[in-house]
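User: quick one, fold this
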Amino acid sequence: MEERVIEREFGELAINMGPQHPSTHGVFRLELHLRGETVVKVTPHIGYLHRGVEKLSETLEYDMLPPIYERDDYLSPTANSLAFVLAVEKLAGIEVPRRANYLRVITAELQRLASHLVWLGTFGLDLGGSLGGGSTLFLYCFRERERIMDLMETLTGTRFHTNMNQIGGVRYDVYDGFDRDVFKTLDYLEKRISEYKEMLENNPIFLERTKDVGIVPQELAKEVGASGPVLRASGVAYDIRKNKPYSAYQEFNFQVPVGNKGDAYDRYTVRLKEMKESLSIVRQSLGGLPEGPIHSRKPVKTPSLFKTPKGEAYAAVESPRGELGVFLVSDGSSKPYRVKVRSPSFSNIAIIPHILPGHLVADAVTILGSLDPVFGDVDR
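Assistant:
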């Protein structure tokens, strides 16, 4: 009876959430149709951050492109460049030294930790006062992230866009004392992650706002092409590092965390457990770092001298958000003929129109934050 009264007196209200909204995690507009506080329909609008890297790839030489790709998913830059160089190496038949593969894994997993820390901290802001004023968890996570950024800066000279990956290997080797610095940081992070777990999972408001909110059934996750923690939270144990190993992941022992319900709480627990697994992978790779060269070829001084055979190749990595793939078409020249990026954030947010209706406006913030989209990754 109450719903009929609301509909008769007020009807359906359409409001915009974003693209300049602190909880849309970037330039993203949600067109929400409401009855009272309940969402009855939602239409996502993207494209405000179109980077044009796919078209730009047709105009630049192969060796110029890895740093460009690091700007897509700007919370995990090395994942982007790694997917691109893997596609080029696959097409050109370029072998990568074992030491370089280990270094790729180390930097990728450190940036996975940094990315998940950004997600966890901003998720705390999304949920606001339920987490000690909201900013407490955010500041804690960014404090920990700074330690990883310091390691990246000492290793590569750059805190964020490291330009670590190049076709045929990596650009930088470890410095004296790198292993000591990394192990010290890992030990520190492990303690902090346990503190976050205790802080959040003993917080009744956090549990109330995340449990049974934004449930993504397995079939829906598969149908829209979800991947990464969003897919695994729905109970699908698919991780490219395990199912289709690249670099040196097949040499390491780690688990693939999965959830049960596929709600916002499961997406939180999967990412938190993944952070522990990343700590283990970095320890294993750094402890067994092989000797040898860090690249099989250096970028040539005259870029047009490097050409790939005609053909096509697809390579994918497990970014913090899921399957990040690069489909590359070559016409035999020194520049790609076409490039298509398969971005996990794009597929993951396709779930929103299916799961948001029936929830309250406040739940929209929780659901979007739990999907962890990066809009440079969405819009490419």
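User: anything notable?
Assistant: Residues 2-379 form a domain with the Cytochrome-c3 Hydrogenase; chain B fold (CATH 1.10.645.10).
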